[in-house]
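Students often ask why we bother encoding 3D structure as a string. The short answer is that it lets us treat folding as translation between two languages. Here is a chain of 298 residues written in the first language.
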Amino acid sequence: MSMNALLPRTLTSQVCGRVQLQCLRPLRIQAATLNAQGEELKCSIIADALKKNKLAFGFSAGGLLFPYYIGVIDQLEELGVLTDRTPLAGASAGSLIAACYHSGLSTETVTEACLVLADDCRVNGTRGRLGDVLSTFLHDLLPDDAHERCRDKTFVAVTKAWPRPQGLIISEFESRNDLIESLLTSCHIPWWFAGSLGRNFRGSLHYDGGLTSFIPSVQGCLTQKVTCFPAGRLNKAVNIAISPPEQFDLNQLLAWAFRPADEPTMLGFLEQGRKDAAAWAEDSGVLEAVPVQQEQKA
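And here it is in the second language, the structure alphabet:
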């Protein structure tokens, strides 16, 4: 007769449970250790990329949730992580923040212009007319040498329509107008943006870059991906670095992406962007590499 047969069932269960816990404890400790080591390695890789000027940021499509990106950019620059040499990639709204930053526009200037654009869209709508409103925004805002400032530092995602949808990244701009056309093309949501399927860009039909490259990367760099949507609602394989908490319902965020929220809410997005960027900078360990990068720049 086995020992288990001589013991009460409850006691047998307790003994087995304790044995299982004792067996699992080393595995849990090992898993926690490996996770900690993985985080340390990731932080080391990010810091090393910054030291070598190989750290880039990619911004997702996001429509009129754009103020979140203003906050992220502002905070990263304030911390010294972001400089005028940092490669920035973007699709749709993400391309706009990349171009605005590398064009040398201040946070205050971009924020004010964004709020004016949003006010226009609240009053007059966005469907079929957002393209014209955004075109005016860019022509009024970007300096004459914006294309030169952005060249090889701003990477704009667009989608070439023919012969089949193909994602492209544009980083060479022939003129200021060519840069603006690149940005408008990256933002061209079929039928919604300007009432047409696409835009004639550099001689062929193109449209929204976010449809083929939601968060573009910069080739040859370690790209930290940023989105104005909660990372938990997106594909985990995307590896989001900076994103907002799940404060709002995803359907509400999507609605605000197409038609702007009220001004206090939009300014709240901006502040949330600052907070999330600061949290990422602290958690990633990148701040330890900032003095080294600044010395190299000097």
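Translate back mentally: Confidence is low (pLDDT under 50) at residues 27-38. Keep this in mind for the problem set.
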